[in-house]
Amino acid sequence: MPPRLELRNITKSYPGIIANDDISMSIMPGEIHAVLGENGAGKSTLMKIIYGAAQADSGEIFCDGKPVAAHTPATSRALGIEMVYQHFALFESVTVVENIALAVSSTFDLDALARQITELSNRYGMPIDPHRRVHDLSVGERQRVEIVRCLLQAPKLLILDEPTSVLTPQAVVKLFETLRQLASEGCSIVYISHKLDEVQELCDTATVLRNGKVTGTARPKESTSAQLARMMVGAELPEMHVSPSVPSDKPVLEVRGLTAPARDQYGVELKNVSFEVRGGEIVGLAGVSGNGQAELISLLSGERTHPNALAIQIDGKAAAHLNASERRKLGMAFVPEERLGRGAVPPHALWQNAVLTAHRAGLVRNGLVDRKQASSFAAGIIERFKVKANGPQSIAQSLSGGNLQKFIVGREIALEPKLFLVAQPTWGVDVGAAAFIRQTIVDLSRSGAAVLVISEELDELFEICDRLLVICQGQVSPPLIRTKTNREEIGLLMTRVDRGNGSNGRAEVAIQD
Amino acid sequence: MAAPVIATGLTLLVGSLLFAVLGYDPLATLQAFFIAPLNSLNGLSEWLLKASPLILIACGLAVGFRANVWNIGAEGQLIIGAIAACGVGLFYPDPDSILLLPLMFFAGAIAGMAWAAIPAFLRARMNTNEILVTLMLTYIATLLLSWLVHGPWRDPAGFNYPQTALLSAAAMFEPFDYAYRLNASVFITVVAVFLMWLFTDRSFLGYKMSVSGAAPLAARYAGFRESAAVWTGLLAGGAAAGIAGMAEVSGPLGQLSPQISPGYGFAAIIVAFIGRLNAFGIVLGGLLMSLLFLGGEAVQMNLGLSAALTRIFQGILLFFLLAADFFIFYRLRRIPEHA
């Protein structure tokens, strides 16, 4: 039997970089094949080539033994290759069935299509109501819509790009069941990820990429995480040192009865949020995205102010009415989830982006920006955090997401904050750099800073946090001691039905996730 | 950087086509439009005289444009600045005081800023659209000027012409040479260009403004106040336009009449964009735009072509600049019907 998909000697270069260098791999029908690699290893380029969204410079692609010529996404779909992107491409204001009707190339019969969607989604154990509007759906449900859209085409090969980054642990379990069922029916699956435990649980085979080259193939179920990580990173991962925390007597960040309306119709209302973070400890905030994190972060950072000044206190001082700059004067530093356009100015050079928040650290004199100081400040961050960039003159938007993240984290940590807020600290950052960032955060807290980490990655939170909070529908749970809780408890809190304020449909659906 | 050059080239091309269609020899007309006006000392003097307010205003406007603060009403701020300066010049008790010119300078600057403060206040407090407010205030300024010169400020000895009395010598910039009109006010522009460069390229406030323009969320993240950018941007433009108005009154005009500007305030918007909101680019843009004004007058006088030609050239230039930007940043692609 010929392989479902075979790549032979695929090479693709972009100006200044070889994204894929002589890559060969093959995937049999019904096989779940992982493509593992750090950020910038060439995974995305390879997927684009398989899907036809980019053309290889050289090399051949065979589908069921036949060479693929004139490759575009349209010919891929004709061959039965479908792709679920990491970031969904759905129209929020229309219904599920209307979204899918736009994507599938069949006659425009909504009722028939809705019946098909219901039938198919039930068969694969991920029911969705075709007549709901997308903006009412949880992230997990949106992903189902994307998957069902692919399944309607009866795919022979399904590509999933980091599908679990937005899901609760329970939803991940559910997704894996669906994928296994699909594979058992003969559909091949290419699963792109950098999460080793998932790959070990789900995948039959793995191709590991590093710097655009295949560095190894493995049977993940028979390999150890350390073996896989070594292939990905090329070296042993540094071990984390998390010493016991010694919390300060007084909280550095104190949130008391914070209630705030949603920013817009898709936002989430915060209801009576109270918690505190002491110096020397790391508190993690877990939750499925879209449960009020964005609102809470913008209120904590000062990007949004609150009329009740005492609702947020930094270092004992009322702060809720202060803007971001005034809160930074109290010793706050903050790494936002979005790097480009929020944590950094895209068309500005790194030295200019250093000035953005580090202008207090002697980068401005007599109202003029001290370019030399700013450049050496930026160069210091680039060196200490091993940012891959051509020096302080590099333009922020020319850096990869992970490298820019290292720069922003480095800039904020260099300010030696008393209170450090960080959202998704290692999102899209490669394994080696992620370990380094986590260690730096731990070291910062052990030197006395109060740290609040907002993350969707439970592994990360369990690795570094002393206490955990869970946010769900704008409410924050009482703190849980990391050593006395577990993933299941957190997972349930992430999707709990709130009885106090009356449950709505969204909460129930979240449980099904 | 390529866009302004491409746009200028295309403007010349379309301009010569236009001349050809109108039945004039394109090359000769282009020569008459762009080269002949600079063939004399007087031409050079006029060139700089007209470039000066354009560059001055464009520098002020660019400060706001860099922060996405769209002051379209520099024409009105220029008029108000001219009115205030002229008012000081006419009614100051001692018409020969050496303080008169500096006082008029500040009157022009403050009046221009006050006129721009209206949209700044409305935008910062009530989030109104400053494009509309600045534009509408321009019409109010024009009508205010018209009322003054037709009514209370009309020169009693002026044979009923709608204009004010002439300013005293102490209220005027002295020309470098009485044969030509160019005067010392160009030095104000030179200083403004330097200040603009210092502000946008070196100052922290200018840095904050560029962050506000390039990434508003990053400005909010860093805690830079949006209202500060709005106020700074509008006041800079208002001050520059008000000073330009004062320099017109104390320079070539010497009095107020219903029409005191050939559209400097609007043309300066184009100058700012042709100059890529950069101090030295604006100097080049201002010289080009000034030449369009001069050339338009020249072909009107020598060849009898319409005065609207200047406006047409301005429009074509802006149009091509925006189009060139578009095609530099985007690429058109034909998408097959069954994508």
TrEMBL record, chain A:
Pfam families: ABC_tran. Residues 5-236, 253-498 form the ABC transporter domain. CDD domains: ABC_Carb_Monos_I, ABC_Carb_Monos_II. It is found in: Cell membrane. One of its GO terms (molecular function) is ATP hydrolysis activity. It is a peripheral membrane protein. Its main location: membrane. PROSITE patterns: ABC_TRANSPORTER_1 (PS00211), ABC_TRANSPORTER_2 (PS50893). GO terms for cellular component: plasma membrane. It comes from the Bacteria. Keywords: ATP-binding, Cell membrane, Membrane, Nucleotide-binding, Repeat, Sugar transport, Translocase, Transport. Coiled coil: none annotated. SMART domains: AAA. Belongs to the ABC transporter superfamily. PANTHER family: CARBOHYDRATE TRANSPORT ATP-BINDING PROTEIN MG119-RELATED, GUANOSINE IMPORT ATP-BINDING PROTEIN NUPO. This is ABC transporter ATP-binding protein. It comes from Aminobacter carboxidus.
